């Protein structure tokens, strides 16, 4: 869809399954989404239920299955900037090539959006930069608060992040209602990316904003729902066959 | 990167001829930090101590790959000296061996050993061991060497054939393992000084490890003496586990009897000294770097 629109962008799928990653769905880089992992392990999509150590353990398994670049889900830094410092160390040595850090409060909440203070967020960003062993490990920022701090708030945060040395910034929690504001921001910031999320804007609108990159968690979660429905059909069909066979044999 | 430095440091320590490398088995990250602080240059993450500290069970092949790998990873992250890994039998067939090697290398260990016991294995100084045909470990060693990403991730062979057969068989097997690619050789449980000397004479150009287990089958000798004999590494696998158990029992018996730890305080470090040792000041300093005031100044707000 995004290529058909006639512009190039880095499309980054959200994945968590080693088989799917191995099947080259990952491309050059992918986002190891905490939400998907929480769904698999905890039957709950609330990623903040996953602790850092649990996520990092999963990351280490995936690291050994692929040479693709892994963007780790740093959530909102797992506490205060000190926690973020040690979290980045753990994620880096567990194999992350990049760490995406959001400006929500800790613990991150997918249903109720709350953003942390800008000083806390920039403290976490600076702590992340300082914590890296390898300067090539990218720190990426995710700004979720456009509905709270508005266009100017987004722009101010982008400007400060640039000053701190953050190149890859993505907007998240984007709603259809803010379409005009979004168009303005993306027009002013050609390097800006976005997160395509289940409850947010659709792929058509995302493409129309011409972001530098898209991290797509939406399509993977949709695919999961359709996979569940398909599997349910198969299992029901197999049950029906097995029941018939048992009835036949008992006659 | 740290992992590269650790592998290089370990290789250098093993292949230098001046003195044997004293390696201590650490039951956990804390004891590894203590070892590092008193000057040990390498840590061994090994099964006897891990079985005891993680499971409260003897070294009888119950601690599996996942437990052993995670323990080693924790220790690697806690210290800035090389950590060598006890990878037991490689935890299965050649596919398991490949995964084992890749995993230990990925967590930053400096090398590992693979042994020829049958699974479930047991501590090398326990009775009742059995070993595979030598070709089994030779193939695992060759597989491990092929699977490693870095040539300086050192692979050691361990044979337990001394107890099951005799020293000649243990030496014969170890030569086979060395030919298969093992960088270092470990013959477990020789029974005398003469046997230790025989091992050293059989491998004049291959780094050898000696295992000094208290009350084990092998006579206890100082690291310096074993180094002069020709051993490159001398490991003490049980000292910290036994010492911890001894002091835990002593302190707890006294606490149970008296209801206080007053009498035991003479055998403890103090609150302040421990916090200093464990790095509280460093963690606090990290936190202090990112206060709102400091960040406001940084971004000019």
Automatic annotation (TrEMBL), chain B:
Superkingdom of the organism of origin: Bacteria
Q: Which Gene3D superfamilies match?
A: Phosphoenolpyruvate-binding domains
Q: Which residues form the signal peptide?
A: none
**GO molecular function (one):** oxo-acid-lyase activity
A Pfam family it matches: PEP_mutase
What is this protein's name? Answer: Carboxyvinyl-carboxyphosphonate phosphorylmutase
Organism expressing this protein natively: Agrilactobacillus composti DSM 18527 = JCM 14202
